[in-house]
Write a structure and sequence with these properties.
- 65% of the residues lie in helices and 1% in strands.
- The protein contains 16 helices and two strands.
- The protein has a two-stranded antiparallel sheet.
């Protein structure tokens, strides 16, 4: 559940406190039924509810659902929150829809239109909320509705890095549902070249997506090998200051390195002598660093963990 701040949704905080203080299951059910009746009457009878009030009542319904109770109303109010320009209201609307709206619902057309509006927004926060909702639902209907929008968002030069990262993961989620969602042809090269992106978060997300694509069609995506080796080489030879935000226990980007190694595992050694040489240098460097004593007594270094993984590869 979203955090309840002292300056907002006091009614939600009081309701949660009441539930926690119930001495029996019967008392909890009685309190919940009372609240459901109150919310239902507010939604039906009060036409002046503002966004804050709708958000509060929708949050209560979410909390009640998480306690194991069925919720059969409030869906339209949640959909209405999607049109809000306030982050918290839009966020709660998307959260409710992701959890409680069936893809066969009559509201799905309204939801799809709202998501399309947010995908086309200039506000990256709104775009990310829409992408997260699509990924959370992850249905064939979502893939059909947004299968052409998300790849464009992923490879566009105008897309912000945080949105590209979310788009790659969203596309991966939909690909697992409908593999036909990923276009071929020129799109293959554009997706592969995300491995060369300057933003490490984009590269990490793209690597997961590309590995899934490689499993389906390794020949089409074999161009990723040279770029994966190049990126791995840059990581392995990087200093602490080069990748300071992605360094863990003095090792630059260890998780991305493992992802790249897993990706390369789907292909035989590169035919190009230069690429093969760089790959061998990377592996030698990793193996040599893994023999160094740990810089921390508390944990083994990620390089040693990577060594264990390399042993599995061979």
């Amino acid at each position: 559940m979203p955090a309840v701040r002292g300056d907002g949704m006091r009614g939600l905080a009081v309701f949660i406190s009441d539930i926690r203080n119930c001495k029996s299951k019967e008392a909890e059910v009685k309190r919940i039924n009372k609240e459901l009746a109150n919310i239902r009457s507010k939604f039906k009878g009060d036409k002046t509810l503002d966004g804050y009030q709708k958000k509060k009542y929708v949050c209560k319904l979410l909390f009640i659902f998480l306690l194991g109770h069925d919720i059969d109303f409030g869906h339209m109010e949640a959909v209405n929150l999607l049109s809000s320009n306030k982050y918290t209201e839009k966020q709660i609307g998307y959260l409710f829809i992701s959890v409680l709206v069936n893809t066969n619902s009559d509201l799905i057309k309204l939801i799809v239109q709202s998501i399309k509006n947010d995908l086309g927004s200039r506000n990256p926060v709104h775009v990310n909320l829409a992408l997260q909702c699509i990924a959370n639902i992850g249905s064939k209907e979502m893939a059909d509705a947004f299968g052409s929008d998300i790849p464009k968002l992923l490879v566009s030069g105008e897309t912000m890095d945080v949105v590209k990262q979310s788009a790659a993961l969203c596309l991966l989620r939909l690909f697992r549902t409908t593999q036909e969602i990923i276009p071929g042809g020129e799109w293959t090269s554009r997706i592969i070249h995300l491995l060369n992106d300057q933003h490490m978060g984009v590269v990490t997300a793209a690597c997961s997506l590309i590995e899934a694509l490689v499993k389906k069609n390794p020949d089409e995506y074999k161009g990723c090998v040279s770029l994966a080796v190049s990126r791995l080489s840059r990581i392995v030879t990087a200093s602490y200051t080069d990748l300071q935000d992605y360094t863990y226990y003095f090792v630059p980007a260890p998780w991305l390195s493992v992802k790249l190694l897993r990706l390369l595992q789907h292909y035989p050694p590169p035919d190009d002598p230069g690429v093969r040489g760089r790959l061998n240098e990377c592996l030698d460097t990793i193996l040599n660093k893994a023999q160094e004593p740990p810089k921390s007594k508390k944990f083994n270094t990620p390089m040693q963990r990577m060594l264990s993984f390399l042993k599995l590869l061979v």
